[in-house]
Each structure stands twice: as structure tokens, then as C-alpha cells.
Amino acid sequence: MDDSRLPIPLPVKREVRQRCGFGCVFCGLPLYEYDHLVPYAEVEEHDPENLVLLCATHHREKTSGLLTSDQVDAARKSPCNIEKGETHPYELHYEGKSCEARIGSNSITWPELRDGSAVAGILVDDTPIVGFSVDRGRLLLTVQLLNAENELLVQIVENELILSTVPWDVEFAGRRLTVRHGAGDIFVGMTFEPPSRVVVDRGHLWRNGVQLNVTPSDLHVAGALHMAGCVVSDCSVGVAIGSSQLGGGGIFMPVAQRQAFEPSEETEVRIIRMTTA
User: Fold this and answer.
1) Do 141 and 101 contact (CB within 8 A), yes or no?
2) 3-state secondary structure the chain
3) Using an 8 Å Cβ cutoff, are 239 and 250 in contact?
4) What pairs with residue 213 in β-bridges?
5) Which of 10, 15, 69, 192 has the highest CB neighbour count under 10 A?
6) Which residue, 202, 274, 205, is CA-closest to 243?
7) Residue 242 banded pLDDT, cuts 50, 70, 90
8) What is the dihedral of CA 11, 77, 50, 54, to 10 degrees?
9) Cα angle at 167 between 192 and 156, to 5 degrees?
10) Using alpha carbons only, how large is the chain's radius of gyration in Å?
């Protein structure tokens, strides 16, 4: 690459991500590269109308001539993720039996999970917001992040990541996932740290009218909980919030007041819940 090439401006990248549905316009994979339909060497500018998101495979096919510019342009105008309303699943690489969920400055750890077990770092009304399980020796991450309307925006089930195209912007760069509701309005900022750690250090998460505010320094649930610098270890549930009946030896905080929400029937079907054995 020519070192003199100017970087793509951040607002241009955001516009391209929004238009392409936060993934490759052909397959929908949320791991992507920014490609110029007409090569940059010819135009020497970053016009958003000349940019498209392609995964590494489709980018390589375009570069080698296995995909024509006309085919890429047609996919740019009709991205598969926009039609589906969500990205193609991406398989995260978690493994082992020890794991950690870090929420703000709080650490919830499991030194060794037995096969067949399921645990939650944060649980709201028996819905694991962040959790792990072990199945036949495989460590599996579960993350369910919802907005105030109880709509799933980010879901990971058994290491399989799917992103909704509803948010204003979704950026997946390196190990870092950032979902924004608007300029400067971060719904969630999280980092995947395989093989056994996930970090949620920023955001405004919801479940059934319960709001969880996360900053790099703390976790705050209005009227119920404030945690900073806490360590919870080897509990089936690290922090249970709301009406959960599950035990687990962690921290339990009931929430009397909740903000109103309109449940989504379609979303409810897809939400994974923890149950007693």
C-alpha cells in the first residue's frame, strides 16, 4: 500500500458501515475490510459512494478478478445484512475450563468449570447478560445485550456472534466491538479476549426495564446496586439482578422500580435463559 495514501476519515467509514449493514455485502460476515470499487490509485479520494465492506475472502476474489466491479456494486446496493436485519454469524474462539467476565472494574471468575455446567457473570430475571458454559470440553460464551425496548442488539450463543442492523452504528475492529445509538452515544463497548476472557467496559444495557450502566470504573443499577473493583469467584451466578430465583452464592439485588418497556414477541423467543437443573 502507498504510504502517502490518506486514511479513510472516521465519518466516511461510519457511513459505509451503516449503508452496508455492518458486514460484507455478499456474505454478511461482520469481519470486513473497506474496499474501493474504483481503485484508490485512480481516484485518490475516499468517496463513500465508492467504498464497500468486503470480508477477506470476497475482497481477495475482487482483487483477483473472480468478482467483477459490477457484481460488487450490485451487492453494495443490496447488502445481505440489510435484507436479513442481522449479520451473518461469526464463530468466536473460546476454549478451556477457566474463564473470566470483567464488567467495568469488576471481575467475575471461574477457576475451573466442570463439563455440562453453565454460569452467568450478570443475570437479570434469569436472563444471562454475560455467561459461560462448558460442553464436551468446549468453553462457550453467551452474551445477550438488549435495548430499552427489550430488543436484542448483540447476541452470542455458544460462541456464535450475531449483530443486529438496528443500531445507528456497529464497529468491529480487531477484538473490540462498539455499538452506538448515535454520535457519542455508546450502547456497549466490549472486548473479546480469547481463549477465556470477555470485557464489557462501557454501555447502557437493559432487560425487562432494568438498566445497567457500565463504565470502565463501575457497574451501576439504579436504585439497586453499585459495584467498583469487586471480585466474585467460583459462583454459578456472579451478580443476579431482579426477580431471579436461581441460587449461586454471588450477589443478589432485587429491583423494585423498573422503567416501562414494550416486550417484543420475536425477541423473547430468541433469548436464552438460565434454569435450575
Assistant:
1) no
2) CCCCCCCCCHHHHHHHHHHHCCCCCCCCCCCCEEEECCCHHHHCCCCHHHEEEECHHHHHHHHHCCCCHHHHHHHHHCCHHHHHCECCCEECCCCCCCEEEEECCEEEEECCCCCCCEEEEEEECCEEEEEEEEECCEEEEEEEEECCCCCEEEEEECCEEEEECCCCEEEEECCEEEEEEECCEEEEEEEEECCCEEEEEEEEEEECCEEEEEECCEEEECCCEEECCCEEECCCEEEEECCCCCCCCCEEECCCCCCCCCCCHHHHHHCCCCCCC
3) yes
4) 204, 220
5) 192
6) 274
7) confident
8) 80
9) 35
10) 20
- Within 10 Å of residue 224's Cβ, how many Cβ atoms? 15
> What is the pLDDT averaged over residues 153-168?
96
Residue 268 has pLDDT above 80, yes or no: no
Residue with cell 451473518: 88
User: Residue 107 is placed in which grid cell?
Assistant: 471481575
- pLDDT at 3 (0 to 100): 55
Which residue's C-alpha cell is 474501493? 36
Per-residue burial over 100-110, b = 16 or more CB atoms within 10 Å of its CB, e = otherwise: bbbbbbbbbbb
Of residues 139 and 268, the one with the higher pLDDT is: 139
